[in-house]
Design brief:
The chain has 71 residues and is of the alpha+beta class. The protein has 1 helix and 3 strands, in the order H-E-E-E. Strands 2-1-3 form a 3-stranded antiparallel β-sheet, with no helix packed on it. Strand 1 and strand 2 form a beta hairpin. The termini are far apart.
């Protein structure tokens, strides 16, 4: 591997690796923990939930939301 790739891997290896699908689809900074109803997509964080009226994945109208605690 090239030196640049090896350095990039070394710099990011100390960061927690999280599946990109688990990041908030609005801010992309926090882990998604809000389940949107009725589409059932777990796709926004608690900070962004009040800003989301439609699901960022399927564009369905949000009627309710549930906070999910993953263990």
């Amino acid at each position: 591997k090239s030196r640049a790739i090896m350095l990039a891997m070394k710099e990011t290896s100390s960061l927690p690796m999280m599946d990109l699908n688990r990041y908030c689809r609005k801010c992309m900074a926090m882990e998604a923990c809000i389940l949107l109803v009725p589409c059932m997509h777990l796709c926004v964080c608690s900070n962004c939930q009040s800003d989301v009226e439609k699901c960022p994945i399927c564009d369905s109208e949000r009627t309710a939301c549930v906070e999910v605690y993953l263990a």
